[in-house]
Amino acid sequence: MKFTATAVFLAVTSAALAAPAPLPDMPLPDPSGRAILNPDNISQYSVSTGAKQFNMGAGKVQKNARGDTTTLFTFSFPDWTAGKTCQLNFFLNKQAALSGSRTFDVFSSLAPATTSAVTWPNGNLRDQQLGRMIAVKGADAMVSTDAPNKLSFPCPQGQLLGGELVGVNDQVNIEWVQNVAGPYIVVV
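Below the sequence we write its predicted structure tokens.
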């Protein structure tokens, strides 16, 4: 059977027009085909001064003799996540800084960060420990068995989720640029 160029063009065009359009707030899948959510913002918090730098575009988890810095993050969950399971992950690209214990704890927050501040409420609004992770350059962090693992949860459709990444042990330094590394959520 012979097909003319016009027939092939019409068949391809018809198939493309019949394909459903993605929902406007639905993310494109990552290269492995998973639907992912990136954080709405990440902010840095100085444990010693209480200062918070909102929506920095870069994350830092640091513990050393000069002081501690943690990263606050916020995710929003669009309607299409209803009834799905969310899994918090952390990726470091090879250009990110990584030294020391490479270990950090993941905490939920009582309220997401919304602005910069010279001081932050006492206790940093840190809530429950969700898990412990070990950062790896060029890969997803490994989940440690030294802490509870609540990193997988029912997606809270239509809500915001705030959290904090906190260094473990006396020496740790993890630094990254948002949207090429850092925390992200896989939606299954």
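Confidence is low (pLDDT under 50) at residues 1-26.
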